[in-house]
Amino acid sequence: MNNENNMNQFKKLQSILKTFPNEYKNKNYTISMSTKELMALCPFTGNPDFYKINLVYIPIKNLVELKSLKLYFFQFHKLKITHETLLNVIFNDLAILLKPKYIKIELIANVRGGIRTIVTREQGCISLQEKV
Questions:
Q1: Predicted confidence band at 126 (pLDDT cuts at 50, 70, 90)?
Q2: In the chain, % of residues over pLDDT 70
Q3: Are 12 and 111 in contact (CB under 8 A)?
Q4: Is residue 49 among the annotated active site residues?
Q5: Annotated catalytic, 125?
Q6: N or C: which end of the chain has fewer CB within 10 A?
């Protein structure tokens, strides 16, 4: 896939993600999620790459709806994409959608050729201290 086709595909993926209101927006708490149900295709060989993804965020106004997140992850199975691009696409989509106080995503690729690859990105403030 060329870069323009990838960008168009990524925009379609964004529309799959849904949110719902955070009923405790005045409270600082952490949401952690993890799944091994993420797969994409190696852009060099076309072979499948399997991943574990860990997501941690401190919400403000919105929470990600889990079914939409699962459907979103599933859509990557047919895309040829590097580990680094996959992480950054997912990170950007969730950071823009949720606008959290803090977000961290860790993408762990299954060992390939004897090498384990872990790609991580985070942004924001992780302090959970409540204002009194």
A1: confident
A2: 91
A3: no
A4: yes
A5: no
A6: C
Count of residues making up the chain: 132
Three-state secondary structure call for residue 72: helix
Among 13, 16, 42, 95, which one carries the catalytic annotation?
A: 42
Long-range CB pairs of 127-130 (<8 Å, 24+ gap) are 127/28, 128/28, 128/29, 128/30, 128/58, 129/28, 130/27, 130/28
Contact 57, 100 (CB under 8 A): yes
80: β partners? 41
From the list 10, 17, 49, 53, the catalytic residue is 49
The answer to whether the CB of 90 falls within 8 A of the CB of 78 is no
DSSP letters of 73-94? HHGGGG-B--HHHHHHHHHHHH
* Share in percent of the chain as helix, strand, coil (round to 5): 30, 40, 30
Indicate the pLDDT class of residue 1, thresholds 50, 70 and 90.
Answer: very low
| Structure token digits, residue 55 | 């997501």
